[in-house]
Amino acid sequence: MVHLIKGILTAEECKILTDQFNIDKKVNPSLDKKVDTGASYGFGGTYQFNVYLNKLKPKILEINSDINELINVNTYIREYKNNDFLDKHVDRTDISVTLSICLDSTITKEWPLCVKINNQEHCFNTNIGDGIVLFDADKNPHWRDTLICDQNERVVQFFLHWKPVSYESKKSKSLL
């Protein structure tokens, strides 16, 4: 199951988190692998980002009433620039629910996140503050095609990850 959530964060929240990303970027080394994302820059969330796991959890539970309780896994923030991408993959074993929120975008075109569920492709574009929640993220392939934009443009995405308390995960993360 995948859902687009318009305005899950306010413009003010996005600005605060983007400013925090810009500060953290100066001291945190990128954890991204070029083979998975191009030259994009990303790292695990700090406290200011991690508080959103609990803040947004009720909204996620509201969307999928089959889940009673979620365990916080982690957050991650990634900046995409020209020629960056998100390779087609399924998430690692301890992640079942992924929420991707656009914190900042200076591009002038759509750049959707795509998901394949039951052999059907679903693609959603996000504006600043919008999020896409994907359930069974460790089973459903998802990706972003190569971003083609000006050298001074970027998109900053905020990822939040959970798993249901009683969830049977797959064996490992994999690129497809």
List the helices and strands and how they pair.
Blueprint: E1 2-5, H1 11-25, H2 34-37, E2 41-44, H3 47-63, E3 70-80, E4 86-90, E5 97-105, E6 113-117, E7 120-124, E8 131-135, E9 142-144, E10 155-164, E11 174-175
Antiparallel strand pairs: 1-8, 2-3, 3-10, 4-9, 4-11, 5-8, 5-10, 6-7, 6-9
Question: Main traits of this protein?
Answer:
176 residues; alpha+beta; Jelly Rolls; six-stranded antiparallel β-sheet; five-stranded antiparallel β-sheet
Kindly describe this structure:
It is built from three helices and eleven strands; from the N terminus they run βααβαβββββββββ. The chain has a single domain (2-164), classed as Jelly Rolls (Sandwich), CATH 2.60.120. The longest helix is centred in the first third of the chain and has 17 residues, at 47-63. It has helices at 11-25, 34-37, 47-63, and strands at 2-5, 41-44, 70-80, 86-90, 97-105, 113-117, 120-124, 131-135, 142-144, 155-164, 174-175. The chain is an alpha+beta fold and 176 residues long. β6 and β7 (120-124) form a beta hairpin. The strands form two sheets. It has a six-stranded antiparallel beta sheet with strand order 1-8-5-10-3-2. 20% of the residues lie in helices and 36% in strands.
